[in-house]
């Protein structure tokens, strides 16, 4: 037997990041055939029409103007107090749910997921999320022996599939006694779906019904990574109020991230926000997550915290930041509309897109289709059940053109499969 | 029974950070009685004589001159390739051990400890470190169900207690089959001890003896957080060469951190460096740790990585950085010498100090003594077996004065205990 030094639980396939690899290949292709001829829809970040990463100037001006000491100092384990306040202010924007709210800083949204999942699930537990989901949910879970269970995200009408949600919810809670549910909305990665206010009511009504049995414990984890790229900034935040006054055996955790809203991907700054009608449960949330901070990364990027705080606490800076951010949001909306329109014109089936960075195309053999598309100089990300196209990273013009290229390859693929069959 | 939502394994005493609290109290005292009358020896960071955090200008000039895009972009999961090379260059400084070396970026040294411990130990395992140790080793371990076992750091002569080390090593390896050993050297936190080259030979000779049984797996984890504050920068790194050509069932992991050497505490940037004579074991290290990165924090602070890389890759910048850093190191050496001299004069027993940020004073009832000292406006950190005095944070003048204050309180305490007995 080959010698191995790692623990059994730490043996994984030796894989490099697929998105990173595809993106590198796209870059190489750009050098070879000219970037105007390559569509790189792999990257989950805002990229301008020339292929450069967009950075919000207001954010970086603030970042670079920090005194050295404010960058250098250790932050508090759970985050600076003023940062915690700033997170609530920018995330809820006045729609604070009634109840007890605690904030724990984390390295990006990923760190918030880790903190919450570790503390609110047991080894062997199944975590519930939709069938279309961001794969790191699974990676974060499986690292610590958790599994992922899925409900169908869409019903036949292309709406949130509340029936499938209920069914899986019941299956898990009756088996485990507790449940940890991840909902990534608005601007779901990878589909761009946003749960409507009415659908939230259905989700919460059902959760409350289950919660009548006080022995059941329900954690609703809401990943709002893309909330700053929803058409209506005000309307998109109203749903936060719904998490006030819930039964004390329903804990809501919101994952906040600076990555997208502040084009601060590389800073690794976010937070887990716990909301409970019971103060002791909120305190428990705070101290359990803080323990995990210490036990995983100690504390977070001080400069990133200060940057957020200085912007949020200064109404003039906040206004400038929002204006600049919304300019890019408008760009994103135009790109997405182009893609959706283009798809309609060539009858390419896409999943219901509402907001955010990505649009998904359901298909068979995603990996093969993805490879075929690279031959046409179109690079996107293969998922289990389809393809993810990053409208955030592709110009409006190319977003318009892409659906036809994808449609053609899917058709070729289909006839190939039929011939083989 | 009171309602609780967290998993059983996530229930911890609800404690705030004791060092942070003590430091806050010291600050308040400074405001009340004047900072010249307060000694704040709690902080594990370089503080100038006026009580301000020291920041190496060369580091922050580089940091602030980065293009926005180099700050904003996601880093690769395991770290940028040029960062990985820069880490090896600055850490080993030419003393690269022979063999297969892999680097995985981490949020500070804490993140490197987490990555290594998680992947190379099993739940229930005992991790071996010295009886004087940095408490987060325990916190990181216990969060995931690992325990800490201790060998006695010092023998009667104030040298590394190789006999105690061997005894505990055998006890654990015969029970578990594997062992994970943490040695924090040079400039051990909290004692300031540095394992000598001869002592390293003893440690390695014994490890190799045990490793003759190929079923045994030995991981030597070496935390070099304070290596940049050793009197002789060149001599202090020679021991790295000893980790080359070890048996393949001994894996060495070095924890590198930018926190102290680059006064970049708040940036959270470090790395785990794996060294193995077997290439496959080195690859396994890389992929297992990379999986954990993705599953905990995704990726690390891009700006911090770039800062290190730009400095290390430019010989002029590197020279300026080192000159500036060594100025502060010289200051630290003078402070430590003052404290050691002051202790000798009043016959205060201290542990053998060699290098680094801290000096430890063994005593009974550390918490009570610590409280008593606050009444004399001296703030330091109580440990299990004594007190930790941060020479990094206290002026030379105050370092000279402090031993007498501590000695007096210890004497009072002693006579109090005797009267009570």
What is the chains' assembly state?
homodimer
CATH architecture of the largest domain in chain A: 3-Layer(aba) Sandwich
Side by side, the strands of the main sheet of chain A go: 2-8-7-6-5
Overall number of strands of chain A: 12
Main sheet characteristics of chain A? 5 strands, mixed
CATH T-level topology of the largest domain in chain A: Aspartate Aminotransferase, domain 2
Biggest interface: A-B, 83 and 83 residues
Secondary structure: helix percent of chain A: 40-55%
Report the top-level CATH class of the largest domain in chain A: Alpha Beta
Distance between the termini of chain A: 41 Å
Q: Helical element count of chain A?
A: 13
What spatial form of chain A do the alpha-carbon principal axes imply?
A: globular
Q: How many structural domains can be distinguished in the coordinates of chain A? A: 2
Order of helices and strands of chain A: HEHHHEHEHEHEHEEEHHHEHEEEH
If you had to describe this structure to a student in words, what would you say it looks like?
Two copies of one chain form a homodimer. Chain A has 421 residues and is an alpha/beta fold. The first copy, chain A, is 44% helix and 15% strand. Chain A contains 13 helices and twelve strands. In chain A, strands 2-8-7-6-5 form a five-stranded mixed sheet, with helices on both faces. In chain A, strands 9-12-11 form a three-stranded antiparallel sheet. A two-stranded parallel ribbon of chain A has the order 1-10. At the A-B interface, α2, α3, α5, α6 and α9 of A face α2, α3, α5, α6 and α9 of B.
């Amino acid at each position: 037997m080959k010698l191995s030094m790692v623990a059994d639980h730490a043996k994984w396939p030796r894989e490099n990041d697929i998105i990173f690899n595809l993106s590198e290949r796209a870059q190489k292709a750009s050098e070879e055939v000219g970037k105007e001829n390559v569509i790189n829809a792999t990257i989950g970040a805002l990229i301008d029409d020339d292929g450069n990463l967009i950075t919000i100037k207001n954010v970086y001006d603030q970042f670079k103007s920090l005194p050295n000491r404010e960058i250098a100092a250790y932050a508090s384990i759970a985050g600076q107090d003023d940062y915690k306040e700033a997170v609530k202010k920018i995330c809820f924007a006045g729609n604070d749910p009634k109840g007890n709210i605690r904030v724990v800083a984390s390295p990006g949204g990923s760190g918030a997921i880790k903190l919450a999942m570790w503390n609110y699930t047991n080894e062997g537990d199944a975590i519930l999320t939709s069938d279309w989901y961001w794969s790191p949910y699974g990676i974060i879970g499986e690292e610590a022996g958790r599994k992922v269970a899925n409900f169908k995200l869409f019903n036949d009408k292309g709406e949130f599939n509340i029936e499938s949600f209920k069914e899986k919810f019941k299956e898990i809670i009756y088996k485990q006694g507790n449940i940890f549910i991840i909902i990534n909305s608005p601007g779901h990665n990878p589909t761009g779906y946003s749960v409507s206010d009415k659908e939230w009511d259905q989700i919460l009504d059902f959760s409350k019904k289950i919660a009548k049995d006080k022995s059941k414990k329900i954690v609703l984890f809401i990943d709002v990574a893309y909330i700053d790229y929803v058409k209506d900034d005000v309307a998109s935040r109203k749903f936060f109020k719904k998490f006030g006054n819930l039964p004390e055996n329903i804990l809501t955790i919101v994952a906040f991230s600076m990555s997208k809203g502040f084009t601060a991907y590389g800073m690794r700054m976010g937070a887990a926000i716990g909301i409970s009608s019971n103060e002791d449960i909120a305190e428990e949330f705070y101290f359990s997550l803080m323990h995990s901070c210490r036990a995983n990364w100690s504390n977070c990027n001080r400069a990133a915290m200060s940057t957020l705080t200085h912007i949020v606490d200064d109404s003039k800076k906040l206004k400038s930041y929002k204006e600049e951010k919304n300019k890019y949001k408008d760009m994103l909306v135009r790109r997405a509309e182009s893609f959706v329109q283009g798809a309609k014109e060539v009858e390419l089936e896409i999943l219901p897109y509402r907001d955010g960075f990505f649009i998904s195309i359901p298909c068979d053999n995603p990996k093969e289709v993805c490879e075929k598309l690279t031959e046409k100089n179109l690079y996107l990300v293969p998922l289990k059940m389809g393809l993810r196209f990053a409208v955030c990273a592709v110009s409006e013009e190319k977003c318009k053109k892409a659906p036809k290229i994808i449609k053609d390859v899917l058709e070729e693929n289909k006839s190939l499969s039929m011939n083989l069959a």
